[in-house]
From TrEMBL:
Protein name: Transcriptional regulator, GntR family
Keyword hit for Transcription regulation: yes
Gene Ontology MF term list: DNA binding; DNA-binding transcription factor activity
Gene3D superfamilies documented for this protein: GntR ligand-binding domain-like, Winged helix-like DNA-binding domain superfamily/Winged helix DNA-binding domain
InterPro entries, alphabetized: GntR_C, TF_FadR/GntR_C, Tscrpt_reg_HTH_GntR, WH-like_DNA-bd_sf, WH_DNA-bd_sf
Keywords, alphabetical: DNA-binding, Transcription, Transcription regulation
Xref: PROSITE patterns: HTH_GNTR (PS50949)
Transcription regulation as UniProt keyword: yes
All copies of domain HTH gntR-type, residue ranges: 19-86
Organism field: Pseudarthrobacter chlorophenolicus (strain ATCC 700700 / DSM 12829 / CIP 107037 / JCM 12360 / KCTC 9906 / NCIMB 13794 / A6) (Arthrobacter chlorophenolicus)
Length: 225
């Protein structure tokens, strides 16, 4: 795991723009959540994370506070900090956010480089499916949706989406008891990407919207069992 170093001192205006070390630790933990490395209910230890990332325990504590405000972790008095276990009631709210962010980003289209990043995520998913690696397939699916939002070229939207992707992976942990869970979405990802590559962002957005509607229904059914 990469060490997170402090940013060098610079002019006042630049210091405002550079994320603090605690913010970057929070970013790293969001990434681990989004990629399935941290599972719901897992205990997070300040000392272990501080050692892994090369930061102080106070810094990790600040990062935990940021993630707690996003409901990605919970602190239990006298027990510690744990990865959140989100419930069925959270699903619709998260998908509402996804529809606004992802579909709008898709309708705006993207540069050839942006579209290539979406295609790369699709191909990553295909390789994972061929290898029978559903966890890698889940990560590829996260990369696909992250690449869609990245087309908007908005750091703020990317930050919001990082939180959303972390929440989504927490939901998906229960759904992936079905070993083919992520493979079912590969044809959708392919069709969306092909429409985007054909220069039809509105059609791609319509396909994405239908995809998100089905995905919400499927996930709600799993968590409603």
């Amino acid at each position: 795991m990469a060490t997170i170093d402090s940013a060098p001192a610079s002019a006042g205006r630049l210091r405002v723009a550079v994320p603090s070390v605690a913010e970057r630790v929070a970013q790293e933990l969001r990434r681990q959540l989004a990629e399935g490395a941290l599972i719901p209910g897992a205990r997070l230890t300040e000392s272990t994370i501080a050692e892994d990332l090369g930061v102080s325990r106070n810094t990790v504590r600040e990062a935990f506070a940021e993630l707690a405000s996003e409901r990605l972790v919970v602190r239990h008095p006298n027990r510690g900090v744990f990865v959140a276990s989100l419930g069925a009631e959270d699903i619709h709210d998260v998908y509402t956010v996804r529809r606004f962010i992802e579909v709008s980003a898709m309708r705006g289209g993207g540069s050839p480089e942006d579209v290539a990043a979406v295609r790369a995520a699709v191909e990553e998913g295909k390789r994972a499916a061929a290898a029978g690696d559903d966890e890698a397939g889940g990560t590829a699916n996260q990369h696909f949706h992250g690449a869609i939002v990245a087309m908007a070229r908005s750091p703020r939207l990317n930050t919001i989406m990082a939180q959303v992707l972390a929440e989504m992976r927490l939901f998906f942990h229960k759904a992936t008891a079905d070993a083919l869970f992520y493979q079912r979405y590969l044809p959708d990802n392919e069709a969306i990407c092909e429409a985007l590559e054909a220069g039809e962002p509105d059609r791609a957005a319509d396909l994405l919207l239908a995809y998100l509607d089905r995905s919400e229904d499927n996930l709600a059914a799993v968590h409603g069992e």
